[in-house]
Every structure is written in structure tokens, then in C-alpha cells.
Amino acid sequence: MNNLTADIGYKSINHYGEPLCGDTVQIVDGVNRSKVVVLADGLKSGVKASILSTLTARIISTMLGEGLSLSECVHAVASTLPISSEYGTAYSTFSIMHIIGSSRARIIQYENPAIIMLRNNEPYKFKCDSIQVADKTLLYSDIALEEGDTFIMMSDGCPGANNELKYNLNWQEPQITEFIQVLSLAGYNAQTLASMLVDECNRLYDGKPIDDTTACVIRIKKRLAANILFGPPCRPSNKHMMFSLFMSKKGLHIACGGTTSQLLAEYLGKDIVRDTRHPKLEGPPMSIIDGIDYVTEGVVTVNRVLENAQKYLENKGELESLSRPRDAADILSRVLFEEVSDVNLLVGMAINPAHHGKDMIIGRQVKVKIAENLKDCLTRMGKEVKLTYY
Prior knowledge:
The protein is an alpha+beta fold. Helices cover 32% and strands 28% of the residues.
């Protein structure tokens, strides 16, 4: 197993005046540690286009993910989709990336704009072979992946975006490539890059796109784990085991909770002091323990991270507080949502007497609910999450 992972993000905007988007992006975890990403663009726009692209993306991603051949997938799409009486075809166009073990990618393209690839942040032309599948001509590529490789998949609403109802010759593959190159220097994650690209297309359309517009960005990067200690163990005798495991894990180390932090500092033989590096933050202050990356308050902060995660998913990766953090939860959210690939969540089930009062009763069930919901949100973001109770 290599130390690479695929960071994937996408955004779509509808044809102006249409309630549904005719583009669909589907991401599926497949067999043999593979991941299938499909961007399908349905014929025309509106409800019918949405149905065509949704069926195409789901059929192809599911079947490829289960290990079936490309030929079987395309034949299944051809035999399943209804035929347009106006255009005599049922096909939506599509682009596919089948990422295997984060080390290789099979790329299949059918009449979508060409996939752009950056390597070392420079345009990289990969080899494409023409293949015949179900009387269709597809482009097929097989690429060995390297850290930093970036791929941009697009529907045809992206190149040529213009508010004058004509194709914009000044917004094609070279200009889109340069746009992403500049943004990549800032270290943005895949979701942010995809959002910024589609937002720029929307600006060129003057907010009234004449076609569904979608961009999906895939970045190959090193895995980075965040290890989160959330509460002391139910049994004090398990404290040494829990803290020892926490400190032995590679990656970032985050301690959440006042009592948790005090016990961890004692275990490490370190002092715990107030963090004065963020004087304008609202809410409970952060602390510093030598050897620990982030030290925050417990349930209140982690619950705010959960709320941020839910908003992040609802808004397709757009959350202003990540770039302008207001409190410790915003800082942790940026780390968890945009920087790490893996999360190890160690949850201690001890009951804190300070949390029991007339107005607030926080027990094990509340902590479990927060932890389980956070795990679900992070998993939906594509993170590998392991949750352990003590």
C-alpha cells in the first residue's frame, strides 16, 4: 500500500431557469481498493438530461466498482436509457477515472471536454488510445500516478463560457489550465479548486449560464492522519493504554476537552498553557501542550465541528468560516475537512461531573451521537475514519 490518496471535489450549476442539473458526478468505492469517478452530461438540459446523466453515472460507477468490464458497463447504459425521439440517441457523454490503489488510473472519455492533467503543476499530455465499445469510439488511457498529479474533468458548459450566447474562444483548455495552475500554488484542496473554477464560469456567464456546468477536480496527495482524543476513558485504569495508543499514531494529534487535556499533559510530563496565538477567536480558548498540534475544549467544540461538517456537505464544500475562522471549531474544521485524508477518533466515555446541571445534561449517549454523526460526515467527504470507544 502506497502513502497516496485521491482528494476529490466537484461543483455543478444549472442551466439558467432549469430546476435540475443535466450533469451528474458519481463517486464509488470499488473492489481492490479502487475508486470510480464518473462525470456524465445528459443530452440538452433540464429533467430529461438529469435522468440521462444520473442513470449513466450510476450504472457505470456501480458496475466498474464491482469489477465488471468497461464493455459490459457501456452496453448496460446503451440498453437501459430511453431513446430521444428528437435526437435519436439516449447517450449522455461521460468521463471516467478508475483510480486503483492511488497508484494507477484508468481514464475513459466519451465526447466530454478533454480531461486536463497537471504534473508538477505543469500541463501534462497523457497518451490516449481510441477503442470501440458498443459501436462508440472512446478514448482510453492508463496512467501511473504521482504525488501532486491534478486532473480536471468538465462538462461542456465549462469551456467557452460567455454571456453573449456564443462560444468564448478566450476561455478554452489553455486558459482553464492556467487558471487552475495559479490556484494550485496556494495549496487549495480539490473541492475548493472545483468550486472556484465553476464560480469563474458562472461569472463569465454573467450569472445566467446557457448550459449546465460541472467541474470535478482530483488531486493525488500524501495521506495525512488526524488523531483526535475526545474525553478520558470510562475506566481510569485504561488511561495509559488510551494515551499510549494516541501518541503512537502518525500524523496530527488533537486533544479535545479540559479534563482530557490535563490528564494528557500529566501523562506526557508537560505543562498546559493558554494559547495566545489566536487572540480574536470567539468561544472557549485553545491551549498548548508541547508535542500536541491542537488543544481545545471538548463537547461544545466538537459539536460545532459537527455542525460545520453538515453545512460543508450541504453547501458542496463551501464554508466561509474555514478561511476566516471565528473559533477553535473552525480551525479544527479546516484541518479535518481540507487537510487530512484519515481520521482516528478515540472517544473516552467517562462522565464529566461538570457537565451535569439544571440546564445542561451531557451523557454518554450525547457524546456517542456526536462522534457517530461526525464520523458519518467525514466519511461522506471521502475520509477514512476509524472510531474507537474507551
